[in-house]
Each structure stands twice: as C-alpha cells, then as structure tokens.
Predict the 3D structure of the following.
Amino acid sequence: MQGFRTLLFKEILRFWKVWFQTILAPLISTLLYLLVFAQVMAGRPTLYPGVTYGAFLIPGLVMMSMLQNAFANTSSSLVQSKVTGNLVFILLTPLSTWEFYWAYVLAAVVRGVLVGSVVWLTAWFFFELPLAHGLWLAIFTLLATIMAGSLGILAGIWAEKFDQMAVWQNFVILPLTFLSGAFYSIHALPPFWAQMTRFNPFFYAIDGFRYGLLGVGDVSPWTSLFVVGTTGLALSWLTLAVLRSGWRLRT
Amino acid sequence: MQPAIEIQHLRKSFGSMQALKGVSLQVPQGDFFALLGPNGAGKTTLINALAGLSRPDSGVLRLMGHDVLKDYRAARRSVGVVPQELVFDPFFTVRETLRIQSGYFGLRHNDDWIDDILFNLQLADKAEANMRTLSGGMKRRVLIAQALVHRPPVIVLDEPTAGVDVELRQSLWKFIQRLNQKEGHTILLTTHYLDEAEALCRRVAILKQGQIVAMDELHHLLQSYHSDSLEEVFVAILHQDESVRGP
C-alpha cells in the first residue's frame, strides 16, 4: 500500500505545484462561460419551471470542468513522463498494475473535485443554488471523474508526442463536453442532435449531476447512473488490460 | 548460494532486428561484473529486460533467484538500475525525488539513508534544489541516488560516468566500491571507459551483435590474450573471426 500511497501523493503534488495552471486557469475559463452565457440568456425561460438559466448552467459547467480536468490530469502527467523519459522511475518499481491505475485515477478525481468545488463555491456567491440530492451529486462526481481519468490514462499511453495529445483534447474531449447538454437541455435541440447527444456518456454525467443539484434532469438519474457506471467500468477494464499488456510502456 | 543475476537463452527482437540472440550469463553474489561491447551490441536491451522495462521474446531472467516476469515485485526490489538516459522529473526537488522513489519501494522513513547517499554523491548542498536547476553531472548523480534508495542487493549501472567530470567519477567509484566490498552489493556495469572496467571489475563479458563473444575473469582474459590492457583485448576480440568464441 505504501507504494500506491506514494504514487497518489506524487500525482497530487505534481498538479498542486502548478495550481495556477491546474486549478486557477480552469476556474477563470469556466467563470467566463458562466458570465457570458448567464448574461446573454438572462430572462429567457428554461424548460424547468422555477429554474433560472444561470442555475441551470452551473451544474453543467461544474461537471464539464471536472470531466476536462480529470482527463487532463492523467493524460498530461503520463505523456509528460513518457516524453521526458521519467516514467522509467515508476516502471522500475514493484508497483502493480492496480496500484498504478488507482493512484493515477484517484489523483484525477482529486483534481476534478477541487476544480469543480472552487467553480461551485464561486458561482454560489452570484446565484442561488439548491442542493436537491447530495448522494446523487457525490455518485456522479466520483463516477464521472473516474471515467474521464481512465480515458486520460488511455490517451496518455497512446500518445507519444504532445501534439497527439492535442488531437484528443480538440477532437474527443472538447466535442464530448460541449455537445453534452452543459449549456442547454437536449429537449431544446432538433431531433437528430438530441438523438446524437444520447450516445454521449458525458451527457449522462452532466444530467445526473444536474439532477443531484437542482432535482431536475432530461433523463432519469437511474438511466444516467447505468450509462456512466457501465462506461466507467468498461474504460477501467480496458485501461487495466492495456496497462497489464505493457503496450507503449514496456518495449 | 544462488546467483545474483541469472540469464538463460535470452532472445529479443525489434521487428526484423535481433537485438539479443540467446544470451546466457550468471553473475554470482558480491561480484563486480562489466558488460562491455560496442554501440548497438545489445547491452542496454539486456539491462532493460533484466529491469522489466522490456519484455523478452524468450529466455529466463532471475534476480536473486526471483523471476523478473513471474515474481516481478521481489525481482524489482532486488535491483537498482541507473538508466543511461539523463532523465528527471522537473516538478520536484532532489530530496522529494528520493523520498518519492523510496515510497514506491514501500519505505517511509528513509531520510538517514538518503542523507548518506547525498553525502557520498556530493549532493548534500543540493538536497532542496529543484531538479531543473541542476547541471548534467548533478542530474546523473541523482539518477544514481534514485537507484540506491531501496538498498538493492544488485546495482546495475548503464554507462553511469558518461558526461561526468573526473573528480566526481573518482568519488562515485569510491562509493560504488564501498557498496561492493564492504556491504556486499553485486554490481553490473556497462561502460565505454575500458580503463574504469579494468580498474574496478573482477569479471568481464563482451557482447557483440547480440551475442556474448567472451566471458571470463579479468585476469584470465588478459592472460589468455598475453596483454596487460583490457582495451587491447577488447579490440582483438571484436575483430577476431566469430568462430573463435569464448565460453
């Protein structure tokens, strides 16, 4: 267990040492979204009675920032270690595949929760935010950051250069987080796009999280739990299998 | 007593290139063993296979009796590897780097040994410096320190003195000799400085194109070639016909 604890501590310390870039920068960009969208959309009716657009937007933005930062933590740590070569210090140790996986993923959960919390706390100053179902909120926070953290490990193992990581950020993570109902209800979309969104697991993470905070959502929280849970489980299984195979890590 | 390092029929290919063609060798506990060969002979591939960084196509590798694949935890605890590449983690100080490396091996309160290593590698005054700020020679010393944090019985040094100044080289070898002679650590060394290998090592193996072409105690090797210079012997072995092979 000491080896696992050390790797987890090291991964948390790594992002904490550059908190300006890993905590503050995502907070600023998320608040800018909130400022712009909440201002532009102020006064327009939402699909949920009694819920302002600002209140509707906040859980979407909090979950979006948690997903993006959980992904960024594992993927950037791994790709940096691979490119600079210092991953060897971990590969030479007796750490098991499970210890490696959980240390990286839990550090991603910690960063996701930290960023999500500061976004939520800052938004709380400006908007009235209820807390409808705390347990659902915690479940979706945990499952979604595990899912995004696992995806980040896979991307970090696959990428051999920083520009390959940019492909993931720009062509996978960004579309998945933006086309996920963070800014709107899918009922407001044309049928084709509403249908497409239903194939996006990030949509269920955001919708479930919104249900936890506001008590309303586009789909049942149980459906969201099923989709986010099975996607997280499948990605965890795949990541562990890839780690065990040594693909792109051990020649 | 089981050998510190045991390699049997090790083969490794990268695509169509055969890097190791059935290498077998044994290094007894407490030995100071030099693995020599020209660039591309397969020395680093062999070390990587031993360290678990590379997966062999076939063959058996054991460290202190532990199979490096089947019993990888015990095998990796038995060995400290100093990699050839000058790699470091730019986020941490020297002390943080060494504490983290200790933790990976399950060691929590390791500062007395860390201080001892830092002193012997002349790094004590750099303990709180960030890795980024160190010179190349100092980064190399930290690499050596990282390999030693868990007091491994087997120490593998892959060209540890490349780019290191004379003074440090001498103090480094004094420390490694202390570990070998006083504390009984087994040392496997690869180097292109043959005078270093000659001064330090008891046994020598020469690798050429993925095969061992000579392996013997240093003084036997010098005697059999009627020479008093390892460099002469090395050149002679590399140029002789492949059919004249050592054991």
